[in-house]
Each structure stands twice: as C-alpha cells, then as structure tokens.
Write a structure and sequence with these properties.
- The protein is of the alpha+beta class and about 375 residues long.
- About 20% of the residues lie in helices and about 35% in strands.
- The chain has eight helices and 20 strands.
- The strands form four sheets. A six-stranded mixed beta sheet has the order 11-12-13-10-4-14, sandwiched between helices. A six-stranded antiparallel β-barrel has the order 15-18-17-16-19-20. Strands 6-7-8-5-9 form a five-stranded antiparallel beta sheet.
- The longest helix has 11 residues, at about 210-220.
- The radius of gyration is 21 Å and the shape is globular.
- The N and C termini lie far apart (about 50 Å).
Length: about 375
C-alpha cells in the first residue's frame, strides 16, 4: 500500500505564494525554489543582498552539565574549542565510516548548545544523537517552532543594521549574538551562511516570522533586497565548493574522502574515530574533487568521470553552469590516483566526453 508522504509547510508558506514564488517539495517541505529567475537571484546575492527563507532546517537544543560530552561523542570536530557566541561546522560520523549528517554547533552557554541539522535528516539525527545520550542531557527538538532567514550578500550588514543594536559590520565569521532583532526577542543573529557572499542567518520564533520578514524587506529596500529561492542557493554554494548532504556527502562517504579532514579532530574519541584515524594514516581510496569545464557543457549529478584513456575513474555528485563565471563546474569523487589539481578529466555527457580540469574550490574568487 502506498504511504503518502505529508509535505510540511514553513511558517511563511502563504507569503511566498503571494510573492509569486515557484513552490516545490524539498526535503519534505513545500519550499520557494525561485521568485524571478535563478540567474537573476544568484547575481542579487553575489552583488547586493538577498533573503532566503530556510525554515525547513532542523534545530535541537542540548542542555545540562553533560551536553558538551554528548556533542564531543557524536561529532567529529572539537566542540571544546567553542566559547559563548561561537559556532562551528561539524559532522556526525556513523559506525561504517560514512556521515549521518553535517551540522552547525552553537555554544549559547557552558551548558546549552544549539545544533542545526539538515531538513531531510531531522528525525534520523535526533534518533542518532539520542542513542548516545546516556548521561541525561536535556534534549529538545525545536525545529517546528523556529523560522530561519539567511540574509546574504556584500550589502547584508548595511541593509540589516537599522533593525538591531548588534554591530553587524564587525561581527566575526562564525560568531553569533542573541538579542532583539526587528522587534522580535531572543533572535540568534549568526555571521554564517551557505553562499560565500557574506551575511547573516537569523533564528527566531515562528510567531515573529512575518513581521521580521517584512521589516527586513523594508529596511533592505534602499539596497534593492530581493527574496531568493533554493535554486540560486544551490548555484551559489557550488561556486564555493560547499558540500550538500545527499549529493556530495552521505552515509557512505567518509569525511576524509570528502575533504572534511579539517573538521575531523583525533584529539578526542568520537563515533568511529579509530577506523577514521586508520583511514587517515593509510590514505583514502577516493577523493572529492572540484572541477571546471574546459569545453561547453553542463555537468550533472550522476555523470561519469573519465581519464584520458577513457576509463571511468569516478562520478559527478553536483554540477551546474556557474552564473558568475559562465562556465560549467562541479564536484565529484574520483580514485585518489587521479585527484591531483590540474589533472585533465572528461565528463560523460550522453555519448560525448567533455574536457574538464580538476580545480580547487572555491571556484568563484569574487
């Protein structure tokens, strides 16, 4: 019998429809994919300022004297380095050498942390972390009560400054403050994002979402702020070479293969740390690489990657035509022997082999 999957709605679903957004199911939520065109929205963020509603993301609060111990146990990065107001990118390794999810860890206080996880993995991550919660850490899944806006672009600080006492221009990357924003209390204002264009992410209670969105649009009007959909979010993150869970990293890919050694710290024990340490010492078999097309063609996820002898050496995990650079580019896994920067490779597009070159992200240098 078919099990109908219920598509959830974010708090501002109706507002996005009124704004003329093209809405599509994404990670179990009805989400705005575009408002005008992906290219126009992409350029708005690269050159000015745009606002994304990414309220589908999941948020967990972990509290108590053993909260840090639990985070250290389940995440690969070293959360003991965090201080109040500091955020960290990390991942949840599984027992088989792959990744349960990638996430952000926010230290609110010594005994309170916020974890931000991918929408498609909310239940999976909750169950995974709960499995290791043997010391009575208080866990709360606040995902359904929180809206998240990403205001991104070089003009983001200027556009938002009138709405908060927090000094946005001088906020360091991956730090955050909790305070009033656009009249809403207890908003987490975070100098993070997924675009490489600079900006802020705002976590607030759903009941303030519409009012805050409208005030951001008003304050940003002088800077030509526009709402931006998930289509442009994907091309923006790809120009930076940022991984997308489900494409470039998943339950089968190790953080070391994915180039995430920098968030995999072996000065502590965590899930599967022993075998990951061994993998680091012995070397990985495959590696996530970035590449740019040298001939006309758009690489897509699933396309095969060939060497100059026409042998399959890997596959594309994410690809697009870069709106900023007007070339095809992407990410993919190849055998380690074929992973050196500058190596000539070929992408199999239907029956053709289109020349590309391995390049180190970020592709877009700004």
């Amino acid at each position: 019998m078919d099990k109908t999957i219920e598509i959830k709605k974010i708090a501002l679903n109706d507002l996005h429809e009124q704004l003329g957004a093209k809405m599509m199911p994404f990670a179990g939520y009805n989400m705005p994919v575009r408002y005008s065109s992906d290219i126009e929205e992409h350029q708005t963020v690269r050159e000015g300022v745009g606002i994304f509603d990414v309220s589908h993301m999941g948020e967990f609060i972990l509290k108590g004297p053993k909260a840090l111990d639990l985070i250290q146990r389940v995440t690969s990065n070293d959360a003991s380095k965090l201080f109040d107001g500091k955020a960290q990118y990390s991942c949840l390794p599984n027992d088989e050498g792959g990744i349960v999810d990638d996430l952000l860890v926010y230290r609110i206080s010594e005994e309170e942390y916020l974890l931000v996880v991918n929408a498609s993995n909310i239940e999976k991550d909750w169950n995974w972390i709960s499995k290791f919660n043997t010391e009575g850490v208080e866990m709360e899944n606040i995902s359904d009560n929180i809206s998240l806006f990403a205001v991104q672009g070089p003009k983001a600080a200027e556009a938002l400054q009138s709405l908060t006492q927090t000094d946005l221009k001088n906020m360091k990357y991956y730090t955050f403050e909790k305070g009033e924003f656009a009249g809403a209390p207890d908003v987490i204002i975070s100098a993070t994002g997924y675009t490489g264009a600079g900006g802020f992410e705002l976590y607030l209670k759903n009941e303030y979402a519409e009012e805050v969105w409208k005030k951001i649009m008003e304050a940003g009007a002088d800077f030509n702020i526009k709402p931006i959909g998930l289509g442009a979010r994907d091309t923006l993150r790809l120009e930076m070479g940022f991984c997308l869970y489900g494409n470039d990293i998943d339950d089968q890919t190790s953080p070391l293969e994915a180039g995430l050694g920098w968030i995999t710290k072996f000065n502590k024990e965590f899930t599967n740390s022993e075998s990951l340490k061994k993998q680091k010492e012995e070397g990985v078999q495959q590696k996530l690489i970035g590449f740019v097309m040298e001939e006309k063609g758009i690489p897509r996820a699933g396309y095969e990657i060939y060497n100059s002898q026409d042998e399959v050496i890997g596959r594309v995990t994410s690809g697009t035509q870069s709106p900023s650079m007007q070339i095809g580019l992407g990410l993919g896994y190849v055998q380690k022997a074929n992973s050196a920067e500058g190596t000539e490779i070929f992408i199999g597009v239907r029956k053709r082999r289109i020349k590309a070159k391995i390049a180190r992200p970020p592709f877009y240098k700004g």
